[in-house]
Amino acid sequence: MGLILTLIMGGLIGWIAGMIMGTDIPGGKIGNIIAGLIGASLGGFLLGSWGPSIWGVHILPALIGTILLIAIVSIILNMMHRRR
User: Fold this and answer.
1) Which of 15, 43, 63, 84 has its CB surrounded by the most CB atoms within 10 Å?
2) Domain span at 53
């Protein structure tokens, strides 16, 4: 049950971060989950564990990490698109 809740939380974090950034995450719902999980790990690594926690995921570091991840991926995709 913990894995399912973690995937749901990753999807929610990815979706919220995409709304804040105003850009779609490539891959749709699966992309949201992947971005949320990687972003949560990145945020936890960079910022530690502080703020409110739901299902073991600290919301603020996860959200900040996911926003950072989306920004980096968007920059890379824009650079690759310009080369064509």
Assistant:
1) 43
2) 2-83
